[in-house]
Design brief:
19 strands; 7 helices; alpha+beta; five-stranded antiparallel beta sheet; single chain; 304 residues; four-stranded mixed beta sheet; binds flavin-adenine dinucleotide
């Protein structure tokens, strides 16, 4: 195993780190260190690292922009592959060819510059396109499902594959990528010809709505819970009297009860304990089971 970790070290050079703090790589700004972190910049580097890790059965996980993650305070075993350097946006007519680390915001602004409409909904979601495809991220009535044509992945045997939209099995905040072991390398997005000024106005309007309604001054991972069928998570939480409820430094936002925020130097344990309290309270009061939208990664989280 050491020999092949050495191979990884040689492959990544200055982009290979041991005992690497992940706090700055997730928007909760909590959690411990990765045993090892690497920052690929090309598809080939992703493929080579996965080949080494799989051959040696070294555990690994992927971080896009870390905006939907809760990372264990005990850190992450093995290798964390951080894809924020896998960037690139190329426009061809109404199609955008995007590498998985490209941010939704960057894609939205590029679409606007090219007078392409249909991506405004995503301009305020702070994720990478890879993470957004995994989560089928969405807002204001649209989701990734509506704009993705196809996705290029490395499958769990290390082969490059193209998955068409229907093969992604998109549904509300779900996709095949949450379970199938694919690593997303890039995607093709299709938009429609529009008017740059109208696109700008729509993006500004949606982002103003976010600023008014969401606690963007505090670290969080956005909506902590998925919307349960027939209900709104934030309303159930608010009606349970949980606004402002705190565990350590974690708090149910006063501004938007659907958000748990890192109010004051929270640990990930504070956040996960608060998640449990919210779920139990809402279930007791309304008989509705909330499930977390946020993904938990790292030591001691596998059972959750
Ligand atoms: P990460 O958090 O890095 O990862 C999410 C999951 O995807 C993890 O399981 C990770 O292992 C996996 N993953 C990431 N990249 C890849 C890849 N290339 N290949 C395979 N697996 C990968 N979400 C919404 O849907 N709508 C919103 O309106 C919204 N608003 C938000 C507002 C705020 C302030 C914040 C902090 C978050 C918000 N989110 C929202 C949540 C989050 O931004 C989205 O889920 C986003 O799409 C996650 O992308 P990411 O790159 O940060 O993914």
């Amino acid at each position: 195993m050491m020999k092949d970790i050495k191979e990884l070290k040689e492959l990544f050079g200055e982009r290979y780190f041991e005992n690497f703090p992940l706090r700055q790589y997730n928007t909760f700004h909590t959690g411990g260190n990765a045993d090892i972190a690497i920052f690929p910049q090309t598809d080939l580097e992703v493929a080579d690292s996965l080949r080494i890790l799989r051959a040696e059965q070294i555990p690994f996980c992927i971080i896009g922009n870390g905006s939907n993650l809760l990372i264990s305070d005990e850190g992450v075993e093995g290798v964390v592959i951080i894809l924020s350097g896998l960037k690139g946006i190329l426009t061809e007519g109404t199609e955008l060819h995007v590498k998985s680390g490209s941010l939704l915001r960057e894609i939205a602004y590029e679409s606007m510059r090219q007078s392409l409409t249909g991506f405004e909904f995503a301009s305020g979601i702070p994720g990478s396109v890879g993470g957004a495809i995994v989560m089928n991220a969405g807002a204001y009535g649209s989701e990734m499902k509506d704009v993705i044509i196809r996705v290029k992945v490395l499958d769990c045997t290390g082969n490059i594959r193209t998955r068409e939209n229907y093969e992604c099995e998109f549904s509300y905040r779900e996709s095949a990528y949450q379970t199938n072991g694919d690593t997303i390398l890039s995607a093709v997005i299709e938009l429609r010809q529009g008017d740059e000024e109208l696109i700008r106005e729509r993006m500004n309007e949606l982002n103003e709505q976010r600023r008014l309604k969401q606690p963007l001054d505090y670290p969080s991972a956005g909506s902590t819970f998925k919307r349960p069928k027939g209900f709104f998570a934030a309303k159930l939480i608010e009606d349970s009297g949980l606004k402002g409820c705190r565990v350590g430094g974690a708090m149910v936002s006063e501004k938007h009860a659907g958000f748990i925020i890192n109010y004051d130097n929270a640990t990930s344990r504070d956040v996960s304990n608060l998640i449990d309290i919210v779920r139990e309270t809402v279930f007791r009061k309304f008989g509705v089971e909330l499930s977390a939208e946020v993904k938990l990664i790292g030591r001691n989280y596998s059972e959750r």
